[in-house]
Amino acid sequence: MGRRSDARERLLEAAVELVTERGYHGVGVQELCNAAGVKPGSFYYLFPSKQQLVITVLEKTWENTMTYIIEPIQTSSLNPLQKIEEFFMRTYHLHAYRSNEGKPVLGCTFALLGGELATEDPVINEKVREIFSFITNYFTEWISGAYEQGLITISKEDIPDTAQALLCFTEGTSMMARINNQADIFAKMTASALRLVGAK
C-alpha cells in the first residue's frame, strides 16, 4: 500500500509541473508516467482517468494556494486593503521563487486549464469555476471590510462587481506574467489593484 501511495504522489507532482507548464493536451499519460518513474500500466490503477488526475492537480494547487497565500493573510493583523496587497505580493514571491531557480513563470493553473478546456470538459470547467468562486469570496470579504472601515470610495452595492473585477484583474496579471515570463508583474500591479477597489 505504501508503494502505491508513493507512486500516486509522484504522478501527481509530475502532473502539477508538466500540465501547468504545457496544458492538458500538451502532455500525455506516457510522459507523465516517465517523469514520475511510474509504469504506464499502473496509471489507471492510480487514477481512473487523465481527467481525474487533472482535477486532483487543481485541488492540490488550491490546497497550496490556501496554505501559502490565503491562510497566512487571513490569520494576519493586516487591514483589508493590506490583505489585497499581500495577496499580490505573496503570489509574486511564489512565482519569483520558481524564476530564480531558472524555471518559467507559469501564471495561474486554474485559468490555464479552465481556458483550455472550458468548452471541452464540463467537469474540469466546473472545478475551475468552483475555485474561482472561492477566490472571489475572499476578495468580497476583504473589500467589504475595507468598505466598513472607510478605506475605499466605492458604494456597498458595487462590492460584488468589484470583487469580480479584481478576480479578472488578477487573472489578467497572471496571464501577462506567463506570457512575458516575468514574476515581478504581480508586484508592479499591486498599486493598480488597490486603485481598482477604490482605495483612498
Task: Report what the structure shows.
This protein starts with a helix and ends with a helix. It is built from 10 helices and no strands. Helices cover 74% and strands 0% of the residues. The longest helix is centred in the C-terminal third of the chain and has 27 residues. α1 crosses α2. The chain has 200 residues and is mostly helical.
The portion of residues forming beta strands comes to under 5%
What can be said about the biggest beta sheet? none
Helix-strand pattern, N to C? HHHHHHHHHH
The averaged pLDDT comes out at 95
Task: Please summarize what this structure is.
The chain is an all-alpha fold and 200 residues long.
Features:
200 residues; mainly alpha; 0% strand; elongated
Itemize the secondary structure elements and their pairings.
Elements: H1 2-22, H2 29-36, H3 43-46, H4 50-74, H5 80-100, H6 109-117, H7 122-148, H8 159-180, H9 185-188, H10 190-196
Helix pairs in contact: 1-2, 1-4, 4-5, 4-7, 5-7, 5-10, 6-7, 7-8
